[in-house]
Amino acid sequence: MSDRITIRRPDDWHLHFRDGDVMRDVVPYTARQFARAIVMPNLTPPVTTTALAAAYRDRIRAAVPAGVSFEPLMVCYLTDTTDADDLARGAAQGVFTSAKIYPANATTNSAAGVSSIEGLYPVLARMEAEDIVLCIHGEVTDHDVDVFDREKAFIDRHLRAIVEAFPKLRVVFEHITTADAVDFVLAAGPNVAATITPQHLHINRNAMLVGGIQPHNYCLPVAKREEHRLALRKAATGGSAKFFLGTDSAPHLRRAKEAACGCAGIFGAPFALESYLTVFDEEGALDKFEGFASLNGPAFYRLPVNEETVTLERADVAVPQYLAVTGEEIVPWHGGQTLGWKFLG
Ligand code: DOR
Ligand code: ZN
Q1: What are the DSSP calls for 27-79, one per residue?
Q2: Which atom of ligand 1 is nearest to the CA of 16?
Q3: What single-letter DSSP state applies at residue 258?
Q4: Does the domain formed by 9-308 have CATH 3.40.50.300?
Q5: Which protein residues touch ligand 1 with a CB less than 6 Å away?
Q6: Domain segments of the chain as ranges
Q7: Which pTM was predicted?
Q8: Cα distance between residue 201 and residue 210, in whole Å
Q9: What's a BP term from Gene Ontology annotated to this protein (predicted)?
Q10: 83, HSE (Cβ side, Cα atoms, 13 Å)
Q11: Ligand number with the minimum distance to the CA of 22
Q12: What are the tens digits of pLDDT across the range 260-293?
């Protein structure tokens, strides 16, 4: 068994940096491990225009520690009134790498999201023509649909139709959580891919609800049954180029998580590679790790792979229970646990 692994420097194809003081404190965790990251645009107000994205990108770049090379890749938050010309211009200028559908009220800061997916079809047609990648938070928000069924319902009600209507549109089904999503992505053409988070590879829904409510295991889409976790592990570690790394790192302060109405989101950035690599190791798939972490994402986004490398070695790493963000406590993913891989840089 190999005790060391060296791979091309990976990228994180889905995360949340927030803005202001929180952003300045969390960017270094990601920049330490990853060369690039797709930065989700669900700020208040959301990042809906090229000008807003360019300014946000400048603020992120200013938060990257000196001597560290890291590039944020920006995303346009789609709304019912998205200006397709501005989106196309922003993409042509290299400001936007993709655009994101948040069904209205599906998750944190998604109130301005898309209220009618069909209403967005003219924008999707333009994105297909301009070859702009579409990222999707794939959950319906209908109150009559059980929270555990919302991803599958989204596939049946919307995603299948989008992929049929726009056969050339590149679509990333974000943070998939079900065997249904795995099957959908595998059956679709090479223009459809998915990101998978570390938490959905490690936990099923029991981790959220057994032995008391565990808010630090709560994110959206929520973790599902064990059979779904096993399907995700097989997808991530199975060598298909359709699946790649996206932590969905979503920092919320401890007090906002441990509250009567706790926020959805897991702060996965600080020990992201250690977390993913543990899964690949358990699955006997260390040889598939570089593809998932460093090759499949750039291939799908048609960006160059990174030239630098990172190395991890087999060694105990104690993940702190809390980290300081804006002088307050935040609980990282695996907080208080010991992982078996150490990131050497
Ligand atoms: O758990 C989540 N947190 N899921 C999302 O889709 C959004 C994210 C956030 O921004 O906090
Ligand atoms: Zn997210």
Answers
A1: HHHHHHH-SEEEE----SS---SHHHHHHHHHHHHHHSPTT---EEEEEEE--
A2: 10
A3: S
A4: no
A5: 16, 42, 107-108, 137, 219-220, 250, 264-265
A6: 9-308
A7: 0.98
A8: 18
A9: 'de novo' pyrimidine nucleobase biosynthetic process
A10: 9
A11: 1
A12: 999 999 999 999 999 999 999 999 999 999 999 9
